[in-house]
Each structure stands twice: as C-alpha cells, then as structure tokens.
Amino acid sequence: MRILVVASYNKGRFAPFIVEQAEALKKQGCTIDYYGLQGKGLQGYMKNLPSLKQKVKEFCPEVIHAHYGLSGLFANLQRRIPVVTTYHGSDINDPKAFRFSKMAIRLSAWNIFVSRKTMEKVKPKKKYSLLPCGIDLSESQLTTKEEARRRLHLEGHKKYILFAGAFDNAVKNSSLAKEAVALLHDTQVELLELKGYNREEVTMLMCAADSFLMTSFSEGSPQVIKEALACGCPIVSVDVGDVKTRTASVEGCFVSEMREAKVIADLLQKALAFEGKTNGRKKIISDGLDNRQVAMKLNEIYNKLLGQ
Questions:
Q1: Domain holding 117: CATH number?
Q2: Burial (CB count within 10 angstroms: exposed 0-12, middle 13-18, buried 19+), residue 307
Q3: Which of 13, 58, 154, 186 is buried deepest, with most CB atoms within 10 A?
Q4: Helices 291-305/16-27 angle, 10° precision
Q5: Model confidence at 40, in pLDDT bands (50, 70, 90)?
Q6: Cβ pair 16, 199 in contact under 8 A
Q7: pLDDT at position 308, please?
C-alpha cells in the first residue's frame, strides 16, 4: 500500500514520532513518502497546494495520512485521494486550531484521536478511531541508572528529576515544577530541563533520572510519558492528556488531580524513594503502543477505507 505522509516541515524536519510511525508502517509492507508543509496558518499552507497535487500525481498514493488538524484540512483540499487525519491534542485544545480541525474532521475519510479526552471534546459520530501514537522499543531503554549516568557524566549520589520539556515552553508550566522541587528542600535534588538533546541522549536521561515530571497545562497523548515508561522511569504528573490511563497500575508512577506545588512535591518524594525500574515497559506492550502494534492497527484502517 502506498501512503503519503503530510505534516509540518517548518522546523526543517518532521516530528520524530511521525517518522518512527512511518518507518513501522514500512516494516508492515507499506511504501511511504512524505510531503512537508511550510508556512503559517491555512493561508501559508495554501501556497503548498500546487506542489502537493504534483506530489500526489507523481507518487500515486492510495491513502494520505495527515498529522494535526491544519495539515488534515490542507490535505483534503485535493479530493482524489482519501485522507486519514491524526489529531495530537494541541489542534483540539487550542481554540484557534480547533476551528481548522473541525473542518478537517468533516472532510477526512477517517479521523484518529490520540486520547479519549480530545475525542470526547470533539464528540465524533462516525469514521473515527481512538489510537495513541506508539513508540519504538529498544535495548537502550533497558540501560541501568548507573550506566546511563556514567555515559552522561551525571553524579551518582544526586537525585535527578527530568522535566517534560523546555523551561521556556509556556504550555509545560515549568514554574509549578520548579516550585514543587524547591519544596523538597534537598540540595542533592536537581531538576533537569529536557531541551537540546538528541533521541539517544533523551533515552539515557530517562534511564538516569530518579523521576520524570510533567506539569503541563494541556497535552494530547504525550510521547515523552510513553518513552519514560519504556525506560522504567518513575513518573509524577498532573492529570493531563491520557497520562492517567498510560500510567494506570504502574507502580512508582503518580498522577495528581490538583495543580498544587505541595501535592506535587509529596508525590515526588514517593517517586524518588522508588527502587529500581518500573514495569512501564510491560504496560506499553499491554496497551498495544509498541510502534509495530500501532502500525498493524493503522494498516487495518487503511484497508477498511479501501474496501480490502
């Protein structure tokens, strides 16, 4: 099956989770090509329409898989090839983006929502699936804390809390995280910013950390939570996106219903006291979120659309 992946290319690259999903589809026998959108908003995207139509003519895809609502709306401006659109959260949670997503939902041949919360906000009546993006499972995720710290030149005696993003990303709400860590009153605890690392370094950080912390205002189905689970890193998070579902029954992971620094600090104490790796990796597999499992489900959707 020939699949054309359509997504933003404004940063000079596609989001890693989009590429990893496409690579998993290749292993399922799909032929994959990409079309990268550049520009801001629908008006900016419209400039890409002639080249998208040319790409469709040259590649002859059977299905176009667009990521994020605006990309889905744009991909549907051609009506020859059925479009599957995946909504990742920000395109539903942000009111400005949501208006484009609502149009994409009506036009797309199939819609995929990565979390139940975003799906329930839309309340779709037909042609949809609940399917979070998967992650690649690797041997490096099994690296011990001691070995990961050695590779990263981190101190063995300190307690490291890995924050779920960049401190200057307003959506991630780093001020709450910093306030909670300050309440621990422990000079041996350090909050690490997740910014400027490559994929392998992120994996090593998750293996090296004593806890992973998410305090975001909004999320869809955050990939970093799944990656932390795969690395066996204890997690503390506010109840955002599908984090509660992803971490359910995983010992060493804690979700706060309240966005209060004292509550977060108390949960961090529990996470920091957890010994060893969590069973998060098994949870990823049991939830069907290894990319190989997700690719199989996507193939079923594509085949259903094409009547095969």
A1: 3.40.50.2000
A2: exposed
A3: 154
A4: 70
A5: confident
A6: yes
A7: 64
